[in-house]
Amino acid sequence: MRPFSLLILFFLSTACVSTPSPHAAITPTPTLTNPWLGQSLPGATPRQFASGSFHSSPTFSPDGQVVYWGGEYSTKTIYTRRLAAGDWTPASIIYFSEDMRSYRDPFISPDGERLYFISDDALPGESSSGKENIWMMEKEGEGWGTPQPLPDLINAYRLHWTISVAANYNLYFSANEADIYISRYLDGNYTEPVLLDPPVNTDELEITPNIAPDESYLLFTRVATKSDPPYLFISYAIGSGWSEPQRIENIDYCISPIVTPDRQYVIYMSSPYSLAWRDTTFINELWP
Questions:
Q1: Which residues make Cβ contacts (< 8 Å) with residue 65, sequence separation at least 6?
Q2: Where is average pLDDT lowest: 4-13, 76-85, 198-207, 256-265?
Q3: Whole-model pTM?
Q4: Is residue 160 in a domain?
Q5: Residue of 93, 90, 88, 96 whose CA lies nearest to 115
Q6: What is the C-alpha end-to-end distance of the chain, expressed in Å?
Q7: Residues 54 and 274 sit within 8 Å (Cβ to Cβ)
């Protein structure tokens, strides 16, 4: 078994660094042609994305008009902003249920009809939890329905950090000894999770997957040892398996990569609490 617990403790200890609240820190100048919180668009060279304190990258609605993100780890809070009349509303804390107070690491499905997140609140029928579980809500009008935990066959795993779903709702997540799993969505139900085959999963640690909507490629973080930085890798679906992952060389630190809905930019944690982004030209450039 790998030293998963030591590595995660290392990440958590740095992720809880006290920094300015994102409630007031994100102050971009929005434009109608740039919905991504009004940030100046990057090229292939990474640049800072917004400012503040984060535990996950922002996830946008398909039209780019609404964004959610996880605040620093200790807050157990999800923030949101909305683009209205060409301007972004102030950041606000969002609660999806009166019975829940723990919200982390949101992810909107490619069709915008589902919002997934992680919570360590107690599951229905239980008095306490003590672990993080994946929850999901379906779109209802302009809002979201009642949060529901994913099935026990998924939430039995020891989970942490961001998850991702494809257009068909297949779920990708990392768990246990920091390998990446897939749970397929068939006939309206999630199936027993299975490990992705090598060469995606290795003796190193693979976390925070982000799957393309058509499952043609997978972005994820790989960490060699506790003393090494987390790097961004990409692997492509080839035949019945995955290609040898390739590192994105000019990204020196990456956790929680999320691609914008137009597939043009990847946003990621560039430190335990800050964000950066660059364009996605590397996806075509590295295609095997």
A1: 35, 82, 83
A2: 4-13
A3: 0.88
A4: yes
A5: 96
A6: 32
A7: yes
For 2, counting Cβ atoms within 10 Å of its Cβ (0-12 exposed, 13-18 middle, 19+ buried), the class is middle
Which of 144 and 130 is assigned the larger pLDDT?
144
- CATH number of domain containing 261: 2.120.10.30
Q: What is the DSSP letter of 108?
A: E
Residue 247: per-residue pLDDT = 98
Assess if residue 23 is contained within a domain: no
Q: Are 213 and 202 in contact (CB under 8 A)?
A: no
Structural domains counted in the chain: 1
pLDDT of 27 above 50 = no
Three-state SS letters, 76-87: CCEEEEEEECCE
- Owning domain of residue 228: 4-15+52-285
- Distance from C-alpha of 45 to C-alpha of 277, rounded to nearest angstrom: 8
Pair 283, 56: CB distance under 8 Å: no
